[in-house]
Design a protein that fits this description.
The complex is a heterotrimer. Chain A has 9 helices and no strands. By secondary structure, chain A is mainly alpha-helical. Chain A has one domain. In chain A, helix 1 runs parallel beside helix 8, helix 3 packs across helix 4 and helix 3 packs across helix 7. The longest helix of chain A is centred in the N-terminal third of the chain and has 30 residues. Chain B has 2 domains: 55 residues; 132 residues, no CATH class. Chain B is an alpha+beta fold. Chain C has a domain of 146 residues. In chain C, 60% of the residues lie in helices and 2% in strands. In chain C, helix 1 packs parallel to helix 7 and helix 4 packs across helix 5. Chain C is an all-alpha fold. Classes of the chains: A mainly alpha, B alpha+beta, C mainly alpha. Chains A and C meet through helix 2, helix 4, helix 7 and helix 9 of A and helix 2, helix 4, helix 8 and helix 9 of C.
């Protein structure tokens, strides 16, 4: 497979077929928690995408050049600490130098440290054996896939507000069932780019 | 003992707000690292032995032999390693591990080829990303035994439509893509074999 | 004292079931429950980590400065997760295979950080261990139940090993594979929450309407992120618990 087709297939997989949220079940908390409005969903996913790409850019070299081959068992500890540190650093840098972006995204950043989608994607890049460039593409596509799922779901949820829902399904149950229907629609993409 | 802890506590209190948290965090990190490296010492050998055992078991299931030699080879597809199965001093077959993209991810297949270039048997090593109940059925015996005895360029046809004269096999019902991935991986192994096995009983 | 400890232990199993009542740890709940056996594997692994981390964090609760509390907790938890991961790889490789990446991801399972933050960092060792054990059993039981429902509907049988299985739906009936796929996961989880809500309502307890914000370790940050009119009701009665960034 040459590099252009693999980039395209990674992008397609991350956004549609292997969608982070809807087929891998990573990042369910923000998916259900911060998806009530389209604009908050959008800001949250931008922040997640940003952290995913930067975290991959830092963890991949650390794993490949420092942990390989003798210290791979430290992967989990090192990755989660690096991600926690990166999130703090991004917050400080944005606060100091790029105020408008901080105002838009700052409140979402603390939520991302313990987001399994970020830790998940950095680990998947290693298990899938991707090189540095493709890992970055993979992180970007996972972030975009997260964004697509969030925005679509926020749209569905805004319709739920006015819907007549059976009493016993009100609240979280109907949210989960709506998520099931969104996930069902993504099943249709499976097999694309395989 | 409590006095000792009190001393440590008072030392940290005296040293300001920066040193204490940093020191505590550093100590925790060091302790965790030590704990992990000792666990690793205990388990690494076992994990490695397990991996080798799994591979040997899979190879023994495919082709009966006295020993398996891991050999490197250069093919037109790149450098590979494969296992030659030796029985009574003769090479009776070659074992290749190949991969292809399936429905949800990578499908990994082990293929044993005899010295005539025919498939002895096939084993699916990994198909965890395929759809449970559909694509994962490629790991069932009824499917992968369909490859036994075949050679050349195999084609996976829609379930129930395979024609023997076209070198086709039936795909798993509802899982044509996963079946095609397995077929692609098997064909790759056959391609390697055709380059490595020169004559009936000789390796390149 | 004894009865208090007992109630701490049973608390996590039913009254504050981490999955159905606190709604924590949704990612592994949805991801690994394609079979009952996976639910048991995940549950046991998480329980071991939960008990160990609660034990250690409770022991260290007076030594860890407030400022680095969260990173310190995460490091301890990550350490135990890695140990469990290596042990599973060495002694139960089939569980490692079926849980895949969700085994290391126990690190970011909110249940564990939440119990460290809400319980173990404020309570003595014995109650903390019991709390971890109770929560772990509650988590395992719910995952196993959900795994069993999805497996029975999706394949028609409960399979423990290749030889040992119990068939519930005859093989001649086509299995409903959709229950093994992601939509089935969301759907079954939704129905389970609805049932648990119905039971809670009958007993006069509040129903779960939103994610478990009140029990989430990053609640303080989340509250800011969810803008006005969007605040889950459970977030409003915030008990004072600092996020790492307050």
């Amino acid at each position: 497979m040459n590099s252009t087709t693999s980039i395209v297939s990674i992008l397609l997989a991350g956004i549609l077929t292997n969608n982070m949220v809807l087929s891998k079940f990573l990042g369910i908390c923000p998916f259900l928690g911060v998806s009530k409005k389209v604009n908050t969903a959008f800001s949250m996913s931008i922040a997640v995408t940003l952290v995913m790409v930067i975290a991959t850019a830092v963890t991949w070299p650390i794993y490949t050049y420092l942990l390989m081959p003798n210290f791979t068992y430290l992967q989990t500890v090192v990755f989660i600490l690096v991600i926690a540190a990166i999130v703090q650093l991004i917050e400080i840098v944005l606060k100091k130098f790029i105020k408008p972006i901080y105002n838009a995204l700052g409140i979402y950043l603390p939520l991302i440290t313990t987001n399994c989608a970020v830790l998940g994607i950095t680990m998947l890049n290693i298990t899938d054996g991707l090189n540095f460039g493709l890992s970055l593409v993979n992180a970007l596509s996972a972030g975009l896939g997260f964004m697509l799922a969030m925005i679509l779901f926020a749209g569905v949820r805004s319709k739920l507000d006015t819907a007549d829902i059976p009493n016993f399904l009100k609240g979280l149950p109907i949210t989960l069932i709506a998520a099931a229907l969104v996930a069902l629609s993504f099943l249709g993409f499976a097999g694309i780019g395989g | 003992m409590n006095k000792f802890f009190d001393k440590i506590k008072s030392f940290f209190k005296a040293n300001g707000e920066v040193i204490t948290p940093t020191a505590v965090l550093a100590i925790i990190c060091v302790v965790v690292t030590l704990a992990l490296s000792s666990t690793n010492l205990l388990t690494a050998g076992k994990i490695e032995a397990l991996a080798i055992e799994t591979q040997n078991k899979a190879m023994a299931k495919l082709i009966e032999a006295d020993e398996y030699h891991e050999l490197p080879a250069t093919t037109s597809f790149g450098d590979i390693t494969y296992n030659a199965a030796i029985k009574d001093g003769d090479t009776v077959g070659c074992i290749f591990v190949t991969e292809a993209n399936g429905y949800g991810g990578v499908v990994s297949v082990m293929t044993a080829v005899d010295m005539e270039g025919k498939i002895i048997a096939v084993e699916i090593l990994a198909a965890a990303d395929e759809t449970p109940g559909l694509g994962q059925n490629v790991t069932k015996e009824y499917f992968y035994t369909r490859f036994n005895g075949m050679s050349g360029d195999i084609i996976a046809a829609k379930a129930g439509t395979a024609k023997k004269e076209n070198n086709e096999i039936d795909a798993v019902t509802g899982a044509t893509i996963s079946s095609k991935a397995v077929t692609t991986a098997v064909n790759q192994a056959l391609d390697y074999a055709s380059e490595i096995i020169v004559k009936g009983d000789e390796l390149k | 004292m004894k009865s208090k400890n007992l109630s701490i232990f049973t608390n996590g199993i039913i009254k504050e079931n981490p999955v159905l009542r606190l709604v924590l740890g949704t990612c592994p709940t949805l991801a690994v429950t394609t079979a009952a056996i996976n639910g048991i594997g995940m549950g046991v692994a998480a329980t071991i980590v939960l008990v160990c981390s609660n034990l250690v964090i409770s022991l260290l609760r007076n030594f860890i400065p407030d400022k680095v509390r969260i990173p310190a907790f995460i490091t301890v938890i990550a350490g135990f997760v890695s140990v469990v991961q290596m042990l599973v790889k060495a002694f139960a490789p089939s569980i490692d295979k079926s849980l895949g990446i969700f085994l290391p991801l126990i690190v970011v399972n909110c249940i564990i950080l939440a119990r460290a933050e809400m319980f173990a960092s404020k309570n003595p060792v014995l109650p903390s261990v019991l709390d971890g054990l109770g929560m772990g059993i509650g988590f395992t039981a719910t995952l196993t139940l959900m795994g069993a429902i999805r497996e029975i509907l999706g394949t028609g049988a409960l399979t423990f090993t290749e030889e040992i299985f119990i068939r519930f739906i005859p093989e001649s009936v086509p299995s409903m594979i959709i229950f093994l796929l992601p939509p089935g996961g969301f759907f079954v989880f939704g129905i389970l929450v609805a049932v648990s809500n119905a039971i809670a309502k009958k007993q006069g307890k509040p129903v779960v309407e939103h994610l478990g914000c009140a029990n989430c370790p990053s609640r303080a940050a989340c509250k800011n992120a969810i803008l006005d009119g969007d605040t889950p009701t459970t977030c409003e009665n915030t008990v004072k618990v600092g996020g790492s960034n307050e």
